[in-house]
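The instructor's notes for this session suggest beginning with a concrete chain rather than abstract definitions. Hand out the sequence below and ask the class to guess, before any prediction is shown, which regions might be ordered.
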Amino acid sequence: MIERRDVGPHDVRLDILYCGICHSDLNFTGGEFGPLPTSPLVLSHEVVGRLTETGTEVTRHQVGDLVGIGCVVNSCRDCENCRAAQEQYCGTATDRAPRSRSSASAASAAWATSA
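After discussion, reveal the predicted structure:
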């Protein structure tokens, strides 16, 4: 079992129902982004699931909602990259897929931040 941190005030927790595997997942497992991290390695960075818990400040979603989460979370939505619809290059984004062309990291989580 993977241990998770507690849901924060702006977070949601979900049961993942479906996920997408893309070519960057294949690159990651092939070691093209560097050495593989230790287990568990959970592939996929685009998921659909049903909310099971919401933080105290979440207003757009409620428990039971069906939601989708893309490959970038926690982007600021205000920097030059975000305003240009390039959230994957936001300096504050939490990347769950490669965020820059020269480096990569990956992690999958069953929680995300909601506005």
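Then share the key points. DSSP finds two helices and six strands in the chain. The mean pLDDT is 76.
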